[in-house]
Amino acid sequence: MASAEGVQRTYAPTSICYGCGPANPHGLQIDSYREGDALVAVFRPKPHHHAFPGMVNGGIIGTLLDCHGNWAAAVGLMDASGADEIPCTVTASYTVRLLRPTPMDTDLRVTARVTKIEGRKAWVDMALEAGEERCAEGDGLFVAVKEGHPAYHRWS
């Protein structure tokens, strides 16, 4: 179970991932928290995240969904197995649907829910909202890696 800190700071404080690594001073540094059966993050875009005036770049949106979905998968796999340690997971595939321009001047709420677990695989649905407007959504397949994979122990 995650502490009062986000799961990234709890389980991977030295991670340098661009999207979710607490130790990457140039990254997005998302903080994801448990909320019921979901993982939720709130992200405030910075001026260098623009696509065009007033709107967030689609690549930033994709990174938010990817990293947040990956963490939802890791937490879901850990919970399903009853383990005390979180597995290192990677993105096998993900799809992003940009539904409308995403404004820069507000907090963005990112939500992810595990929809299926099978062995080391977790399927996740993700969404990004600005206020009451859903701006993007996606789904992904994330996999816990085995020893020998370059991402194994990346969070320790």
**Structural class determined from secondary elements:** alpha+beta
Count of runs of 4 or more consecutive helical residues? 2
Q: Strand portion, in percent? A: 35-45%
Q: Which architecture does the CATH hierarchy give at level 2?
A: Roll
**Name of the CATH first level:** Alpha Beta
General form:
globular
Strand order of the largest sheet: 1-2-6-7-8-5
What is the CATH T-level topology? Thiol Ester Dehydrase, Chain A
The overall average pLDDT, rounded, is: 96
Question: If you had to describe this structure to a student in words, what would you say it looks like?
Answer:
It is a single chain. With 156 residues, the chain is α+β, with helices and mostly antiparallel strands. It has a single domain (7-144), classed as Hotdog Thioesterase (Thiol Ester Dehydrase, Chain A, Roll), CATH 3.10.129.10. The chain has helices at 7-11, 58-81; strands at residues 32-35, 38-43, 50-52, 55-56, 89-98, 108-118, 121-130, 133-144. A 6-stranded antiparallel sheet has the order 1-2-6-7-8-5, with helices on one face. The protein has a two-stranded antiparallel ribbon with strand order 3-4. Strand 7 and strand 8 form a beta hairpin.
List its salient traits.
156 residues, alpha+beta, Thiol Ester Dehydrase, Chain A, 2 helices
